[in-house]
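Task card 7
Instruction: Convert sequence to structure tokens.
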Amino acid sequence: MEKQLHLNLLPSRPPMAGGFGSSSKMKMGPGRKRDFSPLSWSQYFETMEDVEVENENGKDIFRIYCSGAHGPVLLLLHGGGHSALSWAVFTAVIFSRINCRVVAMDLRAHGDTKVKNPDDLSADTMAKDIGKVVEVLYGENPPPIMIIGHSMGGAIAVHTAAANHVPSLLGLCVIDVVEGTAMDALNSMQNFLRSRPKTFKSLENAIEWSVKSGQIRNMESARVSMGGQVKKCEESTSSPAVSNSIEGIIEEEEEEEVEEESNKKRMKEDNQEIKKESIFTWRVELSKTEKYWEGWFRGLSALFLTCPVPKLLLLAGVDRLDKDLTIGQMQGKFQMQVLPQCGHAVHEDAPEKVADALATFMVRHKFTDFKEGYLCQRP
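Output:
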């Protein structure tokens, strides 16, 4: 088994035969075309808002998506290159199971967050961002908060908890990030980033790539979350004007020159079509964040174990467990659950399984209760 880097990019296992994941949404009837059209955030979250945070250099703006008005807050932190939208399907599922509030946040330089210094992706800076957003949202008396982080977001969740940036911290859930595995994979990360498509002709094309490559194995989740990973290229905005000017020139040519100019027009239109096709690119240039990778992951296991709140570790495979965590798990310092047949994006591939594990954990620790309707449906 190859070691994979926990930046929320590399699939941890090849897709299974007959589909990309355990979700029934991936099963298509014979001859039925898959729908790669994007889905809106509003189908999964109740509200979207921008939170302004005062900094030394001015104001930073963090995009958040929220659901619920009562119960403990689930603060959701996404992986590298992704956005809060990677939690969309999970949010709808967990919200149907337990009494809670959800806040999914676009981290610094990701999604639709806009900060004065987007190049600073150090663990310390990103952890402070979390604390500042919580302070703006809830003031001096924040409600009980459970931080849940995936991959890079899991590392930032641990740093945030360890630095006590969230004083009302209730618990900590880390999804598929382990120090040893992540550190082993750092050397191969740049090669992987170079192997990805640099552009996509459409958002649908990007969604299709994410599913067929195994990055996200749940079609529904891919359709809502890929919009947070890619953006329109700025240079494509002038394309229609160029095309119109070419047509104007053609109309004024003499008859004997029309054929030659038509050929030129076709060549330019072909070039224009290529430009139109390559209009989406990645929002985050992850290759430029390399200097921060080690700071995200080194010492993470020990830091995780020292956090004084109840802890849950969800993994896509037992091969990810390093020595410190193996010992800690034997000593009962945290609860662990392995969710097999998932890729690295566990919460996207199997949102129901992750929601079940988290709901059970929170109810067992008396952080909240199952919703009455859901409790009646449980086997």
